[in-house]
């Protein structure tokens, strides 16, 4: 017998990033600038807290929404860092990574036929998530000349005034763009005027290199229409522990929790102990990692400029987004630089409209490898000039 796959599953193409990792896996001399995860291990204090919880036999489920002390710590943290006020009992849910929170939101708020506008280029999971929920994706391209920031003009041009939901991701994966408060304000106004619900993925909020992050939920009238996603994967280098959270109005978080309690029960318990400690005592570790990312960012940007590849000044996350030289598509460049020089990068097209002709370069890699990778890219560009 063969399985009859659902239309929704068949509609979604396989991840465009994986193909490059498969080529990279075939050889052992490849330097990967392709992956979107920290090269640092989780800070020791958080690891110790996880170990201690295991030693004490704390291996049961937690409350569906997450341990109450963790939710309280999250409420204090987001109030302190981002000026956001959420009630730990009703307005916060702890999830298995921000990924689960994003998926819960699509399933809780998108009906078949609803339109979900996505500012692109953007993280690859949003589009499939919308399709799995039965919604229609409306890409809203951002442009390099605007530093890949979302504009009201871009929203209007794409017809986002008719959408039901708007997805934002700033600091952005893959471009490294940020949205300072003055650029977010008109977007908030647009959302209020056209009655859009906003799903704001702020998982890179700690990773900014030109002033602190502002959340769209902090603008007047936005808290009641916004879900904020965040987590411990990036800032606290905890990708494998799978812990994230969502913030939003009580009824919205309640709806997400309804799905979560049937599908996940609760987020990983050991990781919740690590996360509590991470918020409690790992601020210096986070600052140290952000400092190192910033040094790498400056190095990578200046090397691309020396090589003669145009690159805009990425100011957040751990990515930059150079343009491929003339004569190549992004896909061709990525494939050939991998085969000829053993450097894995990701073509911008996989991140949606607006990503064409660009490469996503992750600098969550040590400086020595970055130096060698950039030398190899330089040699590749020189050979193909
Ligand atoms: N959102 C964005 C923008 C990301 O880049 C990633 C990870 N690549 C995630 C969410 C997923 O994060 P988590 O590990 O918390 O599921």
UniProtKB/TrEMBL annotation:
**Presence of the UniProt keyword Transport in the record:** no
Cofactor(s) needed, names only, are: pyridoxal 5'-phosphate
Q: Name one GO molecular function term.
A: transaminase activity
Chain segments annotated as coiled-coil in the UniProt record: none
On the tree of life, the source organism's domain of life is Archaea
Which family does the similarity line name? Belongs to the class-I pyridoxal-phosphate-dependent aminotransferase family.
On subunit structure and binding partners, the annotation says: Homodimer.
Protein name (Swiss-Prot/TrEMBL)? Aminotransferase
């Amino acid at each position: 017998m063969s399985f009859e796959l659902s239309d929704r599953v068949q509609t979604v193409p396989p991840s465009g990033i994986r193909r490059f990792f498969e080529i990279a896996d075939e050889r052992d001399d490849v330097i990967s600038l392709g992956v979107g995860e920290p090269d640092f291990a989780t800070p020791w204090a958080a690891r110790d807290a996880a170990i201690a919880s295991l030693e004490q036999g704390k291996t049961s489920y937690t409350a569906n929404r997450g341990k109450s002390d963790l939710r309280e710590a999250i409420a204090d943290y987001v109030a302190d860092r981002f000026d956001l006020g959420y009630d730990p009992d009703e307005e916060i849910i702890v999830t298995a990574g921000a990924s689960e929170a994003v998926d819960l939101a699509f399933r809780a708020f998108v009906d078949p036929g609803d339109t979900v506008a996505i500012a692109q280029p953007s993280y690859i999971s949003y589009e499939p998530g919308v399709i799995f929920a039965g919604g229609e994706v409306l890409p809203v391209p951002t442009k390099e000349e605007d530093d890949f920031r979302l504009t009201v003009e871009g929203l209007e041009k794409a017809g986002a005034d008719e959408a039901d939901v708007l997805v934002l991701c700033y600091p952005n994966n893959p471009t490294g763009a940020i949205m300072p408060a003055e650029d977010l304000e008109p977007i908030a106004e647009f959302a209020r005027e056209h009655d859009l619900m906003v799903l704001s993925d702020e998982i890179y909020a700690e990773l900014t290199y030109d002033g602190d992050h502002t959340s769209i939920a902090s603008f007047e009238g936005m808290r009641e229409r916004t879900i904020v996603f965040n987590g411990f994967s990036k800032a606290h280098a905890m990708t494998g522990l799978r812990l994230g959270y969502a913030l939003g109005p009580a009824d919205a978080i309640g709806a997400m929790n309804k799905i979560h309690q049937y599908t996940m029960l609760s987020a990983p318990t050991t990781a919740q102990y690590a996360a509590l400690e991470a918020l409690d005592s790992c601020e210096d570790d986070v600052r140290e990692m952000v400092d190192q990312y910033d040094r790498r960012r400056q190095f990578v940007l200046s090397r691309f400029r020396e090589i003669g590849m145009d690159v805009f000044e990425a100011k957040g996350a751990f990515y930059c987004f150079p343009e491929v030289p003339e004569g190549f598509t992004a896909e061709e460049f990525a494939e050939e630089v991998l085969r000829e020089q053993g450097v894995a990068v990701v073509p911008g097209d996989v991140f949606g409209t607006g990503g064409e002709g660009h490469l996503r370069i992750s600098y969550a890699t040590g400086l020595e490898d970055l130096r060698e990778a950039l030398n190899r890219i330089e040699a590749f560009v020189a050979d193909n000039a």
